[in-house]
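Incident log, entry 3
Record: Bifunctional protein HldE (494 residues)
Problem: checksum mismatch between cached and fresh output.
Input:
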Amino acid sequence: MQTPVFDFDTLAQAIAGRTVLCIGDLMLDEFVYGEVSRISPEAPAPVIAAQRSETHIGGAGNVARNIASLGARCIFVALVGEDDAGARLRAALAETAGIESVLVCDPSRPTTRKVRFVSEHFSTHMLRADWEQAAPASTEIELKLIEAILPQLPRADIVLLSDYAKGVLTARVIRNVIDAARKLGKRVIVDPKSLNWAIYRGASLLTPNRKEFAEATRSRADTVESITEAAQDVMRLADCEAILVTRSERGMTLVPREGEAVHVPSYPVKVRDVSGAGDTVAAALAATLATGADWDTSLRMASAAAAVAVGKQGTASVSAAELRRKILPHAYLAAEEKIVLAPGALAAQLADWRKQGLRVGFTNGCFDILHPGHVKVLTAARAACDRLVVGLNSDASVRRLKGEDRPVQNERARAEVLAALEAVDLVVIFEEDTPINLITDIKPSVLVKGGDYTREQVVGYDVVEAAGGTVVLVDILRGFSTTALVNRARGGTT
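Fresh output:
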């Protein structure tokens, strides 16, 4: 049986055809940037010389922005006041491609607005001013919210509740949404704020940060083991499929109700601003899970999206193109640096990757004349891991396997072509007829071959599975063959 693989481009196309219903607390985020060079003569307070300002759709609105920027369609239901901030948000949402907003107006409360003063030079938040009424919506407004939400459910592939505890997601609204979604077979993701997770009972996935999880479970939540242990009781209480705990620079840990915990490390990145990183994670999870992707794929997408978001200032959105560059970096290494020649270089690189918690994948071949079939396998292989090592048959090995007139290109030329591909992280030339020794040395987490093999025919499958790894078979593109290309070029038959 072949294991399905989500390569990034296929996944991005699938996301583009999905709709996420996002419900939560909408805010107007304002950022005032400037320099501080003196203390006010009126009081012992720094004076910021304002140089520029930015306004963004914030709170659950930032989740909606990220859903749309990743390529999915977002139906967004939220609450605004009858004021200037509410009018500005209505206009901004109407101008944002990919978002269909359904805004309920409550004249009795202000639209939540947050103004942050930021030192431009140090990228430091100095002060935040809030205008808000963090109280549950009235019974009348609750009914209006429910009436606005329920007709949208059949149109959505997945539901996301973004709770900032500003009054939209009351216990009554939450209960109506989750119950209705479950009847329609829709999964519900909740980014929770309440420590009483019983109100989210029946949701598919809860996504607290480490602090929220520790407070809700009264646990330390500082290791995968402690998180896994503490999650069991609350999963039963909340009747959910899984809990995902985001842990900032320590990555994210998912504990499913069935199966083993999955931990995804964070990307090494220079952090400029963590505002809205949780929104980006929730959006990426919703958009990815809406396609039917598994937990592992969805977590790696969310981790990459968070890494892009924290590298920007303000409540930033992440585009599919930015996410692609993070997952498949164009210049991770120069091509010549990807070819392993020095003894011990492979072991050193593998040790470094594993120290970072990265999953290493492996595939192999002669790659004499690179064609689209090869590219598909390599791209799918890279999508199934964090770093891909490609084993390349040496010239002597190819001659033994293919005949004295092969290879057409020598091993150095073939290695350089492979190394130029963004999907490939390392190329290792091996002299034997099979890569079994190389696989035994590497012990990859993922071993990938074309779907014209069966699992038992894949060299090294037993070594990989014995070490806890996985064998992935990728559907091949019919009509592409190096041998046929060579024969055609030499004037022979195909």
